[in-house]
Amino acid sequence: MTDPLVHAPTLTLIQQAALGSGASFWTTEAVGDVPSILLTDGPHGVRRQSGASDHLGIGGSEPATCFPPAVALSQTWDPDLVERVGAALGAESRALGVHVLLGPGVNIKRDPRCGRNFEYFSEDPLLSGVLGASWVRGVQSRGVGASLKHFAANNSEHDRMRASSDVDDRTLREIYLRAFEHVVREAAPWTVMCSYNRINGVYSSENAWLLTEVLRDEWGFDGVVVSDWGAVRDRVAAVAAGLDLEMPSSGGFGDAEVVAAVTAGALEADAVATAAERIARLALRAQENHHTTDTFDMSDLVDTHHRLAREVAGQAVVLLKNDLRDGAPILPLAPSRLAVIGPFAPAPRYQGGGSSHVNPTRLDVPLDEILARNAGHQVTHFQGVPTDPDDDANALRAAAVRGAAEAETAVLFLGLTPEEESEGYDREHIDLPPTQLALLRAVVEVQPRTVVVLSHGGVVRLDTVAQLAPAILDGALLGQAGGGAIADVLFGAVNPSGRLAETVPARLEDCPAYLNFPSENGHTVYGERIFTGYRWYDARDLDVTFPFGHGLSYTAFAYSDLDVDAGPAGLTVRLAVSNVGSRSGREVVQVYASKPNSQVGRPPRWLVGFAGLTLDGGERRSVEIPVRRADLAFWSVGGGQWVVEAGDYTVSVGASSRDLRLQATVTVTGDAPRTVFTRESTLGEILADPAAAPLLFETLGPAAQNAPAMGTDMLRMLESVPIERMIALSGGRVSPERLDDLLAALNAVRP
Ligand code: BGC
């Protein structure tokens, strides 16, 4: 960033306060030589409103490419592709005069009912962080700022502007802050958007620990913290905590409160000046970038971006199931007599509702695209299910079933309507509408070659669909070119390579947050702690319908020659992957780590790396996947720091979290403990330290050895005793002075 003039001292307090809130719904104030800038949603397209403004997706906006929303983008597991989408979004922002695009959303999908899951990447923090960083790099490569949101622990919509996410420190760090940390450290977004909710009782917008200690002091964020639209309740408290920009305009009320608080000595003048300075830098940087020689014109972008949207959508489709019929897999389809069933075939569901709603430049209709690919053969469409209350469900189903029976193959579109899931509210269940399941049941009875195509923003329960349908394509929400992409995959022009970024549970009741969702009395208890998504299903050994990372291909891959090395930066995982089929295809190799005998509770495995590689039929290639040391660490609550435990780690590689093909063990050097033993340290904690244990054993003497005589394992009994209790329990042999000498000696023998 070029260092602009130091503005704050040259501006009056009133001007500084004015810079700290919007001039309108989407713009900041112009003050002195600091220009006004325009912020706009995001994330999967540019929602540039020129008429009435709103953050609910109600009013219109300029046409812009509607790329696949994050729910589908994440299914590509392809950081390079996501970066290209980011760059395209940046170019359209420039063309539409937008300085900051409000995205990406990297909140963790804690529960499938969250109405906004379609805007988020994954249940896994590494996947969310890596893809979020790519998105930011892409957007910012075009001189447009990103806004990383919603910071933080905003994982449900219910009561979203008040509820407190009650989360323990370790869970926050390892799950809910981790993707944000990754993006901030790796991609330096120009802005971060604080969320509506409270965290452990404190509003994000007033949370000094979150906005200053963690975000700036620890992670080194040097951009602007902007509020979510309407998230500021007390502007003075927010500025004191580290919030720079309140959006949208508060009509001058907040500015006046800031001025009054500084005048009364209740708010540091420096805090206001610093916030103003950051906003001035952002505005000047944004303006400067818009004045570079590159110009972007929407009319030049529409075609190429529609093609990119189709490419991405094609990579995002997940082939969940593909059974054999007459000795060959059902998919891909050869042109034949088709019955295409369901309202989403002529009227696709391709994005979610609310602030991210994009006005697409064009729209691919799946039915038309199927017709084009199936040229020369008959395609008949049937609605199959009612779309309004006057429809006769039985008649619609009967017609579709007749059509399916007469066709060679049925392609059945199932999914959720826009009303069933949206920003602003959560779902109460994860079921597909019963009329759709009844239709599926009836169709598969008459047509053994039935392909289901799914459209939905949040995960839907699929056990019945998986039992009944011999082939399933999961499109989630594919954006404006999804119709073409579905046809590409159905007919094999694209070999599917998407992978689930979220587990499909067998039942809602199995979900980690089932009993703690949504909030109650203003509190959401994150009782499942670090066990989100597959971490939970694996730890509880629960059956799932489709596991995290799952996705089939029209070819098959074999894994061999796993080799894992540990070095100072982390691990290097090497293996060979072979395409053992005849078609070219892309495999996503996933790397999971486990830590047997960990000193803290750990999930059975967690994702530490992944890589995609495209191989021709019969081709074999080696791949090297780096695993960052940071991704092996756990958050030590006592030490307030990340710790990599010493010892053996198991590294597994495979095609999903439950399709692990190879495994190796690697020994990792641990972090030197930075905690010191205190009087409150237990004997067990001290004995777990290889350097201190011998000295303590020596001191404990017979107490540690006469276990058999006592009919118990004396050492295990003693483990939970704080060392200071030796004063009370040693019958006068250990004095306070002797204890402190012992503690000093125990700390001194550690490296
Ligand atoms: C949403 C944000 C969005 C903002 C502006 C809010 O309601 O939570 O994601 O960027 O509105 O539309």
UniProtKB/TrEMBL annotation:
SMART domains: Fn3_like (SM01217). SUPFAM superfamilies: (Trans)glycosidases, Beta-D-glucan exohydrolase, C-terminal domain. InterPro entries: Cellulose_deg_GH3, Fn3-like, GH, Glyco_hydro_3_AS, Glyco_hydro_3_C, Glyco_hydro_3_C_sf, Glyco_hydro_3_N, Glyco_hydro_3_N_sf. Keywords: Carbohydrate metabolism, Glycosidase, Hydrolase. Gene3D superfamilies: Glycoside hydrolase family 3 C-terminal domain (3.40.50.1700), Glycoside hydrolase, family 3, N-terminal domain (3.20.20.300), Immunoglobulins (2.60.40.10). One of its GO terms (biological process) is carbohydrate metabolic process. Pfam families: Fn3-like, Glyco_hydro_3, Glyco_hydro_3_C. One of its GO terms (molecular function) is beta-glucosidase activity. Residues 587-657 form the Fibronectin type III-like domain. Belongs to the glycosyl hydrolase 3 family. PANTHER family: BETA-GLUCOSIDASE. Catalyzes the hydrolysis of a non-reducing terminal alpha-L-arabinopyranosidic linkage in ginsenoside Rb2 (alpha-L-arabinopyranosyl-(1->6)-alpha-D-glucopyranosyl) to release alpha-D-glucopyranosyl (Rd). It is not able to hydrolyze alpha-L-arabinofuranosyl-(1->6)-alpha-D-glucopyranosyl (Rc). This is Exo-alpha-(1->6)-L-arabinopyranosidase. It comes from Mycolicibacterium goodii.
